[in-house]
């Protein structure tokens, strides 16, 4: 029993309202008789409904009781016509008839006006009228024992007592409304006592006693009955109230939610199929009504559907066990729909399994969105290729399969890095760069065999996974890719050219997991780039050692420069005509404490890769210019500058700042650059060249003859000197054509007004041959290797004495004695 019910049943005995309690204590006789008003103790929202219910019941019974009263009034008139006053009998009959008519009429009026719409006011009105009429009727009947008991015969008295007893019992009829019952019964009981008292008969005492017992019994049982009626009506009101709330909630649920409720009976047939469920399944309600889950799942074919849990669902339905959020694919006339179902078995009153009840929701749209998001999450929007996330998934799976299959290289990874993409991106803009990447994606897709898949890993890096083929197949594919990506691109009418370098690694031969495979392909790519870009390289185990060494050197050189481990040594350049030292080339020297020297030929490419070469360049410029100040003013100092540094727009400012800072005359500084500088035609190269020459700084083109289309550069870019690479001098005696090439270079240089220095001169004979070819100057071990700055003044002097003036040279004699 709920708290409210118990409060209603117990009355206010335990009630908290002291005002109401005191009112009751000092209340009317009727109040006392009536006892606690059970209705008043109810919560507000039920009070009106219970009162209305009680009034309705009372009024319904009052109509039947009205007829009884009329019959009794007629019977009394008939039985006592011979013994009592006709006026009284007819008066009683008239009054009872009038009250009965009034009761019937007001009841009718009330029903008509308020049926189902009772308000606080109408109920109060109904109760008052009923109470008034009941009291009037009670008073009318109270006169009967008073008037008839004394003058009657003993048989007639028996009749009076019987009628009175019957009338008192009528209190039951109007019992539901306690006040109405009491207002009717109490006057009749009082009238009976008065009638008995007036008769003075000894039997009256016995009848009085019985009447008292009877009255007490009627009063208490009416009270009890009223309470029961009250409780019954309250229960009904509560149930109605709850069902209404549940109904409202369910309606709202079915109308607004994407979910629906479903129910099956014990045979598994659907009951009360909702329109929402029918909509989702794209079938009429009537078709689904009494269908089974099995029928919904029929027609999907035998093949299992990914993520579908219908087997689990059928299992649980069969076993009568609850299930939660099972995902089911159902093929409907409107296509496949995904439902999420939860359900619980329920029992009938006898405790037997009665079916399943549960909730269903339509997940079709959600799954579609999920799938789309998953698709987007694995795709690179720029190229339409799979992205890095996808690469890891596919590579993991491929590696696992490769490991399982054995030692043959069953998965090849081609790691691609575009050459020159950054330059194109910077010069034609990022939107065009994106378009270029898109075209690269298209070309890769067009090229790929069915067993290969391409990915964009980010930036200008791509990966291709090829399965089930040997290393040769991967190399052929790499070759084809290099050829295809090298072809010019047309973007918004602008022609662009890029290349690609490719590193290849295989699983399980080189690696067994995707991270390692990628790392090894990266090493191979690194070596491809190092070898001059636009080519592919396979991974080999020696690569790791080299890369490790590079990393270590990269780390160490940064500290070395700051800690003064790096110095510059100077190698003299000697005039072939008069044997004078005309200048010195600054060459970087780095001796690692405890580890020995590191060649600049190893160190500079690493520094170029990281950009640290710019720091080295600035440092070397400042140092060389400072040290050159201690030499005779006629001597120049040559500083090697990496193309990475020279291409920068601020390179000229770097040089100008050093000259201003050190005070070295600009024409004493020579900058040595290599042809690689002209490969990527960045605008700053020409600007820097022109600005430097305008300032008076000389430009020397180093390692001339080893590079590309050297001679054509000379017409495009203004330089002051070329340094013929030592490779020509080395083979001078064994390959006579070397001298021919040198002679040809000399002719062009003369025409263009460019000086020529020959590098790597180690013998007098070489020097003599070059002198005869009218080369300007020479450099090499014949005169001296690079020496520390402190030795330079002495060295200059020794060379001057040893070499000048020389007219002829002894054959094939190596002169190292000078140094
Ligand atoms: P390079 O500019 O061609 O420098 C000449 C190289 O040839 C030097 O090697 C020098 O020691 C060597 N050499 C000179 N005479 C002879 C000879 O008669 N016979 C032979 N076999 N070799 C001779 P080094 O010092 O090892 O430098 C190697 C390269 O490192 C340089 O070639 C230059 O490209 C680069 N380098 C050196 N110092 C710097 C620097 O400060 N900055 C930059 N960016 N690069 C530098
Ligand atoms: Ca040089
Ligand atoms: Ca050189």
UniProtKB/TrEMBL annotation:
CDD domains to which the protein is assigned, alphabetical: EAL, GGDEF
Protein name as it appears in the record: Diguanylate cyclase (GGDEF) domain-containing protein
Signal sequence annotation: none
PROSITE patterns on file: EAL (PS50883), GGDEF (PS50887), PAC (PS50113)
Compositionally skewed regions (Low complexity) per UniProt: 1-11
Domain GGDEF: from-to ranges: 409-541
Disordered, as annotated region: 1-27
Record-linked Pfam families: EAL (PF00563), GGDEF (PF00990), PAS_4 (PF08448)
Entries under InterPro entries matching the protein: Biofilm_reg_signaling, EAL_dom, EAL_sf, GGDEF_dom, Nucleotide_cyclase, PAS-assoc_C, PAS-like_dom_sf, PAS_4
Source organism of this protein record: Methylobacterium phyllosphaerae
UniProt entry tagged with the keyword Signal: no
Gene3D superfamilies for the chain: 3.30.70.270, EAL domain, PAS domain
Transmembrane segments: 61-81, 87-111, 132-151, 180-197, 203-222
């Amino acid at each position: 029993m709920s708290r409210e019910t118990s409060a209603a049943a117990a009355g206010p005995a335990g009630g908290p309202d002291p005002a109401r309690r005191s009112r009751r204590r000092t209340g009317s006789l009727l109040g006392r008789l009536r006892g606690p008003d059970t209705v008043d103790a109810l919560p507000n929202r039920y009070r009106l409904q219970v009162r209305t219910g009680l009034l309705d019941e009372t009024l319904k019974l009052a109509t039947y009781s009205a007829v009884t009263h009329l019959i009794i009034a007629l019977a009394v008139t008939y039985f006592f016509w011979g013994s009592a006053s006709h006026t009284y009998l007819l008066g009683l009959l008239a009054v009872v008839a009038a009250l009965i008519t009034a009761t019937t009429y007001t009841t009718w009026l009330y029903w008509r006006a308020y049926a189902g719409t009772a308000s606080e006011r109408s109920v109060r009105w109904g109760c008052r009228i009923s109470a008034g009429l009941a009291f009037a009727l009670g008073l009318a009947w109270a006169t009967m024992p008073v008037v008839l008991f004394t003058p009657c015969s003993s048989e007639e008295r028996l009749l009076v007592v019987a009628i009175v007893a019957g009338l008192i019992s009528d209190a039951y009829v109007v019992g539901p409304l306690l006040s109405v019952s009491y207002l009717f019964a109490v006057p009749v009981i009082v009238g009976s006592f008065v009638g008995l008292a007036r008769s003075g008969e000894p039997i009256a005492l016995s009848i009085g006693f019985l009447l008292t017992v009877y009255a007490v019994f009627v009063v208490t049982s009416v009270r009890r009955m009223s309470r029961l009626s009250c409780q019954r009506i309250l229960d009904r009101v509560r149930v109605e109230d709850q069902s209404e709330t549940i109904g409202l909630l369910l309606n709202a649920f079915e109308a607004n939610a994407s979910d629906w409720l479903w129910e099956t009976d014990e045979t598994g047939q659907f009951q009360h199929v909702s329109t929402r469920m029918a909509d989702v399944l794209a079938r009429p309600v009537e078709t689904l009504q009494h269908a089974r889950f099995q029928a919904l799942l029929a027609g999907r074919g035998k093949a299992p559907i990914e993520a579908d849990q219908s087997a689990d669902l059928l299992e649980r339905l069969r076993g009568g066990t609850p299930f939660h959020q099972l995902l089911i694919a159902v093929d409907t006339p409107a296509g496949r729909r995904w439902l999420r179902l939860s359900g619980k078995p329920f029992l009938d009153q006898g405790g037997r399994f009665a079916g399943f009840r549960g909730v269903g929701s339509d997940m079709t749209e959600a799954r579609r969105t999920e799938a789309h998001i998953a698709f987007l999450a694995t795709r690179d929007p720029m190229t339409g290729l799979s992205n890095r996330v996808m690469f890891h998934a596919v590579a993991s799976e491929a590696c696992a399969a490769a490991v399982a299959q054995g030692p043959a290289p069953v998965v090849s990874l081609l790691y691609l890095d575009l050459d020159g993409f950054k330059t194109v991106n910077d010069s034609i803009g990022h939107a065009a760069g994106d378009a270029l990447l898109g075209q690269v994606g298209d070309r890769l897709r067009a090229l790929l065999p069915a067993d290969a898949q391409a990915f964009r890993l980010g930036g200008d890096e791509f990966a291709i996974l090829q399965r089930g083929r040997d290393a040769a197949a991967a190399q052929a594919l790499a070759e084809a890719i290099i050829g295809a990506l090298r072809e010019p691109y047309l973007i918004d009418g602008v022609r662009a050219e890029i290349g690609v370098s490719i590193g290849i690694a295989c699983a399980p031969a080189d690696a067994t997991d995707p991270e390692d495979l990628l790392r090894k392909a990266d090493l191979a790519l690194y070596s491809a780039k190092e070898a001059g870009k636009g080519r592919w390289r396979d991974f080999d185990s020696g690569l790791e050692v080299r890369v490790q060494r590079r990393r270590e050197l990269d780390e160490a050189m940064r500290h070395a420069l700051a800690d003064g481990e790096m110095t510059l040594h100077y190698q003299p350049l000697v005039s072939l005509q008069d044997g004078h030292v005309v200048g010195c080339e600054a060459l970087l020297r780095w001796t690692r404490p405890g580890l020995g020297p590191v060649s600049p030929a190893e160190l500079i490419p690493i520094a170029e890769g990281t950009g640290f070469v710019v720091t080295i360049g600035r440092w070397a410029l400042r140092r060389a210019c400072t040290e050159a100040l201690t030499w005779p003013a006629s001597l120049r100092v040559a500083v090697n500058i990496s193309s990475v540094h020279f291409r920068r727009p601020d390179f000229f400012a770097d040089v100008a700042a050093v000259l201003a800072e050190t005070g070295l005359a600009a024409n004493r500084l020579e900058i040595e650059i290599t042809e690689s500088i002209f490969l990527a035609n960045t605008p700053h190269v020409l600007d820097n060249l022109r600005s430097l020459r305008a300032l008076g700084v000389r430009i020397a083109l180093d390692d001339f003859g080893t590079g590309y289309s050297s001679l054509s550069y000379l017409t495009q870019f203004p330089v002051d000197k070329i340094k013929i690479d030592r490779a020509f001098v080395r083979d001078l005696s064994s390959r006579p054509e070397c001298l021919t090439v040198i002679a040809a270079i000399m002719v062009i240089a003369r025409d263009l007004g460019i000086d020529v220095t020959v590098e790597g001169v180690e013998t007098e004979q070489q020097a003599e041959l070059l002198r005869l070819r009218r080369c300007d100057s020479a450099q090499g071990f014949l005169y001296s290797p690079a020496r520390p700055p402190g030795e330079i003044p002495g060295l200059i002097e020794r060379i001057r004495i040893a070499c000048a003036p020389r007219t002829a040279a002894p054959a094939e004699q190596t002169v190292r004695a000078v140094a």
